[in-house]
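User: My collaborator sent over this chain with a note saying "see what the structure looks like." That's all I know about it. Can you take a look?
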Amino acid sequence: QRLETAALAYVNDYAVPLVRATRRGEAWVRGLRASEEGKQRMAGLRQEVDAFLATEFALSNAEQIKADHNYQRATIVAAVGLGASLLVTALSTVYLARGVVGPVRRTARMAERLSAGDLEARVPETGKAEIAVLERKFNAMAESLQHGRDELARVSDEQAALRRVATCVAEGQPAPEVFASVT
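Assistant: Without extra context I'll predict from the sequence alone. Here is the result:
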């Protein structure tokens, strides 16, 4: 505002009256006093402009330093955030591998043993939540299959014994041999 006021004062109070006086042909316009006054006013304006530019340059430098500092801080925060994200991702991967994938793979290996006829195969029940349910159900299924096989073997043995008795009876063997077969 001071610069604007000084520039308008130079134009309105010095330059315009000087031009009008020159057009009217007044002699004082060509004098040393008028020229010196113009130089002094212009030097004052230059000082004002130089002071304004120096102040603006200092403010601009301060803003640039502040912006650089904020940029460095934002870069550090972004790097820390990225590092934290990578750490969380790595921990999640390890957790999923140990807590989910490992037990599921162990259960799959036991299922292969079970399907190959090893009815003694059991999964250690170490999981949590749904994995623990899967492990318990797998072990219950293996137990049921083993029980079914044992029951089938018992029924098969009973059927074989009954066939032997029926064969003895059909062949007409004497009663003591039939009773021996029954016992």
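A starting point for your reply to your collaborator: Helices lie at 2-24, 32-115, 129-170, 175-182.
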